[in-house]
Fold this protein.
Amino acid sequence: MSVFRPFLRQPVLRILGWPILWRLLLIVGVVEAIFLAEEFTGLMQLALRNDGPLSVIGKMLIFRIPEIFDLALAFGLLIAVYFAVGEARDNGELVVLATAGIPWWRVVTLVSAIGLGGGVLGLLNAGYLLPLSNFAERVTVAELRKDYVLNKIQTPGDKVAIQTIKDTTFIASPPDEAGQGKNGNLFVYQRNVGGVWRAASSRNWQVSGQDNDRHIILLEELVAHDVALNSTVEPPPMNRYAVKAADFNFSMSEVAPDVDRTPLQAEKLLTFHRDETPRIANIAARALMVPLAGLLALAALVAGRTTLRRIVALPLAAVVMLSVDVVAKAIVVSWASLLPPGLVAANALFFYLAPPLIYLGLRKEALMKPAGRTE
């Protein structure tokens, strides 16, 4: 820790670095909180429809965090740098730094370093955390729905339940006040069983599980009615018979599809292979939007020397950031399959970072002087 202590106490880091970082953390936290609050209603409805516990909602909210992390990071850095550096400039702290011999490019270097660090976080998020979260969310939802169907079949309820298994429809009624049975009555309908349609009812029934997949519906006091489908007699005769017990075998995979644990294309972790070049370019281009946001914030401060310009500078910087991201990302991704990876990376850095750096180099004096002073 003593090795880094001189660096942590540097004037530029103390005056600008820490204010930028705590503002950035605060803004990213607020943006994520707003996003999760909007997602909460839909996730709660999903959990309620499938009788899921509250812990499922919490897990799903955690899985949604990486979804907008890179965008929240870019906008957070844009706002944090604009207000932190703007406040230091208006208070004359940047003039003090310049008087102490600290040049303007140290400010730009600090903001660029924070932006590149955020870009690395965005790259790790989009390449690894987001695919893992998408996979975990899909599996969690599939397991939730499968458990709901199994509980609906196995657990007696106070409402009429309908379930179709292998072209056989089961309609279960709740037990009556007389204690008719564990699960009440069960109506069974089969459209075509050996050329006849069959309707049956059981006065008591239960589901017995042989393993995690195979189950048996045990039917007691069963009364069945059969009618031939191709009977020439009108009305067709109906056969009625009663049996003490019967059973119906089924697999849970026939009721609810098995949870597919094979990662989809969007759920695969980022690998640095030639075949992955377009995906790498797409993710890296989005990650470069974070350092671009920091440099555009400095450019907005330089351009906003009057009251009117300061009002429109930050929104305009946000529009420019999104526009550059769309255009530059399309160009970089289109070049990913044509050029070597090193050249693609160099072009991406140029398209994203060179224009604001050139502008800041041309207006470097305006960066350090308060807005009320002449340039």
The mean pLDDT is 82. The first strand starts at residue 161 and ends at 165. Residues 39 and 53 are 17 Å apart (CA to CA).
